[in-house]
Automatic annotation (TrEMBL):
The keyword Nucleotide-binding does not apply. It is a multi-pass membrane protein. The keyword Transmembrane applies. InterPro entries: DctM, TRAP_DctM. Keywords: Cell inner membrane, Cell membrane, Membrane, Transmembrane, Transmembrane helix, Transport. Belongs to the TRAP transporter large permease family. The lineage of its organism: Bacteria, Pseudomonadati, Pseudomonadota, Alphaproteobacteria, Sneathiellales. It comes from Sneathiella chinensis. The chain crosses the membrane at residues 6-34, 55-79, 99-124, 136-162, 168-192, 213-235, 241-259, 271-293, 313-330, 358-380, 392-413. The complex comprises the extracytoplasmic solute receptor protein and the two transmembrane proteins. It is found in: Cell inner membrane. This is TRAP transporter large permease protein. Residues 8-415 form the TRAP C4-dicarboxylate transport system permease DctM subunit domain. Part of the tripartite ATP-independent periplasmic (TRAP) transport system.
């Protein structure tokens, strides 16, 4: 009866709009009472603090701050001009530029929402002025922004690594090929759409000269190279690379004539707010995880899977459907926080590589940013570009379908994710 009451409380609070941290934390504490485990609450503070005392967490606020500085420092425009000099000559070239700029931006910020905000203000008006429909320009911006959390550095991969005790460096390496593959898939879709819809572009299109735009963009382009090479080849830890990213973002922003003290202060304020929100969620997760370990919930789920006779691939498909459904209505980090500690350990028990699992879950949940009714990236671009939300949903469907097919490929072919970290000696199979 007590467990039923807690379940009803959880459902009412969820649909009543309660903040996810309070929802998880209060439900977990009530769960201790309902399961007659209240005596274990005395050890909860020590348990929570021990789980948060992880070096990997240091990188998260620093990468958030780096992304905030880059978003305000004029870096996006330099990357757009360089991308245009390379791809502006092709049919639908500005669509390709949008995707390539997201690749460059992803190697710096690691955030889909930062990418969408920056390029929504920068590229969508330019594409519309060149003859693209505004809803298509916003749709390709939304679809390409998903590259941000896959190509390292990635906030969601750091979050997963700390949550599931997985090497962040290995996760970063595993995200490189899927992120580039996603960019390639989007370029193919854009090429097809450009010819079908008669988008502008071609040899006669005006575009910046390659060398001048390259030299102007070089400070921005050097950032992901320095960060990634330092992490992947062992010169820096993710936290050290994040600190370097903050310093470099500030210097590059000043080089482009931006980042007055007011913008720096706003970036720090925004970072503090986001970091605080994330760590409150982590405290709630640790509380729920403590209860789950006492009740042996992951072991019971694994036993249920064994009884159902699900194979490793079968369980992965079921798990991904559940995460996709969660991503439609929940924030990415909240969905991972709520479902990850319960659903991921049984997959690992079935033999799924934890690094492969991180890429699948990270990609899956970021796709949720493109799915109604609460797709975060769609909401941002709908607001920025003044496009009807459901009109934008329709425009993004071809790209969304391609990303779902790529997700299926990542599930079925682990080597797409694992070949690079294995080659670098970061994992062994």
């Amino acid at each position: 009866m007590h467990v039923l009451a807690v379940t009803i409380f959880f459902i009412l609070a969820l649909f009543g709009g309660a903040a996810i941290a309070y929802l998880i934390g209060s439900t977990a504490v009530l769960g201790f009472v309902a399961t007659d485990n209240i005596r274990y609450l005395a050890a909860l503070p020590q348990r929570v603090l021990s789980q948060l005392d992880m070096f990997a967490f240091m990188a998260m606020p620093l990468f958030i701050l780096a992304g905030e500085l880059m978003n305000r420092g004029g870096i996006a425009q330099a990357l757009v001009n360089f991308s245009l000099s390379l791809l502006g000559r092709f049919k639908g070239g500005l669509g390709h530029v949008n995707i390539l700029t997201s690749v460059f931006f992803a190697g710096i910020s690691g955030s889909a929402t930062a990418d969408a905000s920056a390029l929504g203000n920068t590229l969508v008006p330019v594409m519309e002025s060149k003859g693209y429909k505004r809803d298509y320009a916003a749709a390709i911006t939304a679809a390409s922004s998903i590259i941000g959390p896959i190509i390292p550095p990635s906030i969601i991969l750091i979050f997963y690594g700390a949550l599931m005790n997985t090497s962040v460096t290995a996760l970063f390496a595993a995200g490189v090929v899927p992120g580039l593959l996603l960019a390639g898939v989007l370029i193919v879709i854009n090429t097809v759409q450009a010819h079908r819809l008669g988008h502008p572009g071609g040899k006669e299109a005006e575009r910046p000269r390659v060398l001048p735009s390259f030299w102007h963009a070089l400070p921005s382009l050097s950032l992901p190279v320095i960060i990634l090479s330092g992490i992947l080849f062992g010169f820096m830890t993710p936290a050290e690379a994040a600190g370097l990213a903050v310093l470099a973002a500030y210097l590059v922003g000043r080089y482009y004539g931006g980042l007055p003290l007011r913008d720096v202060w706003e970036a720090m304020h925004r970072t503090a707010a986001l970091t605080g929100a994330i760590f409150v969620i982590l405290v709630a997760i640790a509380t729920l995880g403590y209860l789950a370990s006492i009740e042996q919930i992951p072991q019971k789920l694994a036993a249920q899977i064994t009884e159902l006779g699900l194979s490793k691939t079968g369980y992965l498909l079921v798990l991904n459907v559940l995460f996709l459904l969660a991503g439609m209505i929940m924030d990415v980090k909240a969905a991972l926080a709520l479902m990850g500690p319960l659903l991921i350990p049984p997959a690992l028990a079935l033999g799924v590589d934890p690094t492969h699992m991180g890429i699948i879950v990270g990609f899956n949940l970021t796709i949720g940013l493109l799915t109604p009714p609460l797709g975060g990236v769609l909401l941002i671009l709908s607001t920025v570009t003044k496009i009807n939300y459901w009109q934008l949903v329709r425009a993004v469907l071809p790209f969304l379908l391609a990303e779902l097919l790529l997700l299926a490929a990542l599930i079925l072919v682990p080597d797409i994710s694992l070949a690079l970290p294995e080659a670098l000696g970061l994992i062994s199979r």
